[in-house]
Design a protein that fits this description.
- About 40% of the residues lie in helices and about 20% in strands.
- The strands form two sheets. The chain has a six-stranded mixed β-sheet, sandwiched between helices.
- Helix 3 packs parallel to helix 5 and helix 5 packs parallel to helix 6.
- Bound molecules: adenosine-5'-triphosphate.
- The site of adenosine-5'-triphosphate (ATP) has 11 residues, from helix 1.
- This is ABC-type glutathione transport system ATPase component.
- Belongs to the ABC transporter superfamily.
- Keywords: ATP-binding, Nucleotide-binding, Transport.
Length: about 280
């Protein structure tokens, strides 16, 4: 069995507010990401998905537990150490409008991470990166505002690929895109994974979106993993009530499927009522 490339071990993230009140937002989460796989993290807004991604990137406090990349601890280390050991972890954010510096050309955006890491990265590499994400090779001299949302997300993906990462954290990377563009960008993620062997930790609130690209899915509820398993099993035959609710909340275009969903939702509610399991159940999704 291949050993995991990224390990989140018993992670606890606690934030302390202005009045000294502390709030545990991640509670004992353990996750393994294997080389070349896509593990999705799904849950409703506020469940802690982004916080886990930020903790991996060194942007959220790791209060307890630890994070390892290629077997080396990367939590609670200095910035300079992180630059050395964690350069193989990159990120693509949700919003392609705010995540790209509007005053930089696309070429400068792509060269920046390579220059910061002291990696070789000339015009040829920029052209390769643009080509790999399906953008015209002359895009380098243009500015982000000249591109559509989907194209901007391609630029952000090219930037994430610049240092040949082995892990990309994709934080709701298609949520700001229309459905057609969303599908194209998801296909691009898949193709890039086939070509490069990169692993994705794919963060989304939408079980429908992640099912098509995930190997495994972990479901997060109030800072804890309540279910984890093979993508098809979690998305199609969830074991946990909360996952069932997420499944039913995911938008579907097909009216027949919508009717089936509605019937299943009513059945679930009736069963819960009968079993009186409402106490402690998550809020309406
Ligand atoms: N810097 C912070 N200080 C205090 N609380 C925070 C901070 N960042 C996040 N939180 C809290 O942590 C919890 C988890 O937030 P997080 O953004 O990780 O959730 P999420 O599942 O990614 O939600 P969304 O899909 O809306 O982004 C929320 O209750 C949020 O208010």
């Amino acid at each position: 069995m291949t050993s995991p490339i990224l390990q989140v071990e018993n992670l606890v993230v606690t934030y302390t507010g202005r009045h000294g009140l502390s709030k545990k937002v991640i509670d004992n989460v353990s996750l393994d990401l294997k080389a070349g796989e896509t593990l999705s993290l799904v849950g409703e807004s506020g469940s802690g998905k982004t916080t886990i991604g930020r903790a991996i990137l060194g942007l959220a406090p790791v209060t307890e537990g630890g994070i390892k990349f290629r077997g080396e601890t990367i939590s609670n280390i200095s910035r300079s150490q992180r630059r050395k050991v964690a350069r193989g972890i990159q990120v693509v954010f949700q919003d392609p409008y705010s995540s790209l510096n509007p005053s930089m050309t696309v070429e400068d955006i792509l060269v920046e991470p390579m220059a910061a890491a002291g990696a070789p990265g000339g015009r040829q590499r920029v052209r390769e990166l643009l080509d790999s994400v399906g953008l015209p090779s002359d895009s380098g001299s243009r500015y982000p505002k000249e591109f559509s949302g989907g194209q901007r997300q391609r630029i952000a993906i090219a930037r994430a690929l610049a240092l040949d990462p082995s892990v990309i954290i994709c934080d709701e990377p298609t949520s700001a895109l229309d459905v057609t563009t969303q599908a194209r960008v998801l296909t691009l993620f898949k193709e890039l994974q086939e070509q490069t062997g990169v692993a994705y930790l794919f963060i989304s609130h939408d079980l429908g979106v992640v099912n098509s690209i995930s190997d495994r899915i972990a479901v997060l509820y109030q800072g804890s993993v309540v279910e984890i398993g093979e993508a098809d099993q979690v998305a199609r035959a969830p074991r946990h009530d909360y996952t069932r609710r997420l499944q039913m909340a995911a938008p579907v275009a097909d009216p027949k499927k919508q009717r089936e969903r509605r019937a299943a939702r009513l059945q679930l509610l009736a069963a819960e009522k009968a079993a009186d399991v409402h106490q402690g159940a998550p809020a309406q999704l």
